[in-house]
Amino acid sequence: MNEYVFNSTGPDAIYLANINIFFPVLFSLELFKNGWPEHKFGSQTVLQNDADWYRQMYESGLTGNRLHIAARKSARENLSGRIQKILRYATVMADENDVKALLNSGVVTYKTRKKARRTAKPAQS
Description:
- By secondary structure, the protein is mainly alpha-helical.
- The chain has one domain (about 1-110).
- The protein is built from six helices and two strands, in the order βααααααβ.
- It has a two-stranded antiparallel ribbon with strand order 1-2.
- The longest helix is centred in the middle third of the chain and has 28 residues, at about 65-95.
- The radius of gyration is 18 Å and the shape is flat.
């Protein structure tokens, strides 16, 4: 099965930059404008509030406060999980133009899953 993956690796500053690219692209998609299931993924304001919360915890965590660092980690995990759910939904429901827009954003990549080899490799002598 094929899937789309959000680039969530790297330091928090890069992750924040990727979030700032991803959400405007998402909000401009035809899929988001027509028939978006807000009860599953949240509305634009809910998604923007999650991104803003992560941004606040990122800025607060720069001081070294352990509580803010823990909150930043939690906010990043929450946001990453929400984005992966959105991308799984887009895999099934998005049309070709929406998929192209996501892939052209540079923060979403196309990943193919390869089947695992079930037979043992012959031993070489």
